[in-house]
Amino acid sequence: KETSFRVILQIPKANLDANKKSLIITSEVAIEVTHRARGTQTVWTLEKLQHRIFLMREMYESRREDGSLFKKVSSNMAIDPFYEMEKSHTLLGVANLFLEPLNY
User: Long-range contacts: 92-99, Cβ < 8 Å, 24+?
Assistant: First the structure.
């Protein structure tokens, strides 16, 4: 597969409140998945990575039992644990926008 995985740190969306007074910013571990063949990039949570690893192992075991381990993989995206159905969007940040000056 033309897929690469990279561990990154990201700030949870709940902590991106522009009105938050605390200066403590926490971050969480996430997995950046890059599909070079499709030119897409998504971010997985650790829970999603664990689920996908389970699917990958299950797929490996079923292909090993069938004796089709080294045969070409079909292009059926429904069973591909690397395939992302939904589009992933990355939140860059938050900001306060004061509209009162526009009133004058």
Answer: 93/16, 94/16, 94/17, 94/18, 95/18, 96/18, 96/19
